[in-house]
Amino acid sequence: MSLFAQDSDASPMLAGARVLPVDFELDETSAAERALELSEEARSIDGASIGVSLVFSGTRQDMGLVSGTVFLAIAKNNQPPRALTSLPVRSTLEEVQRRARLHAADMLRQELG
Q1: Do the beta carbons of residue 66 and residue 41 sit within 8 Å?
Q2: Which residues have C-beta within 8 Å of that of residue 19, sequence separation ≥ 6?
Q3: CA distances in angstroms from 22 to 15, 78, 86, listed in the order given
Q4: Which pLDDT tens digit goes with each residue over 39-79?
Q5: Whole-prediction pTM value?
Q6: Measured between alpha carbons, how far is 39 from 50 in angstroms, rounded to an integer?
Q7: Nearest 5 degrees, angle CA 58-CA 87-CA 73?
Q8: Domains of the chain: which residue ranges?
Q9: What is the 3-state secondary structure (H, E, C) of the chain?
Q10: Phi and psi at residue 106, to the nearest 5°
């Protein structure tokens, strides 16, 4: 959320944000489906016009790395949620999260632009 809320002019536009623990048990199909569900849930629960979600599917590897795919989905107004993109990643979990947030911000910019 801090990525979007750092600018004091932007923060009133945020209805809410939640961070859920990473579930390393999700396969890619389940992660993509979960991303769709969470984007709709974010939109409807928070009373927002747009809900965005990011869900990781992958494995832990040696030396603190994770490898897998981040699925990004968006639910906009009263349209059905849709998956917009997937992002293959291999890095530390913190770096994967940072890249996913930047990718989501760009996705949102394109949707609103």
Answers
A1: no
A2: none
A3: 23, 28, 16
A4: 999 888 867 888 899 999 999 999 999 999 999 999 988 88
A5: 0.84
A6: 8
A7: 95
A8: 2-112
A9: CHHHHCCCCCHHHCCCCCCCCCCCCCCHHHHHHHHHHHHHHHHHHCCCCEEEEEEEEEEECHHHEEEEEEEEEEEECCCCCEEEEEEEEEEEHHHHHHHHHHHHHHHHHHHHC
A10: -65, -40
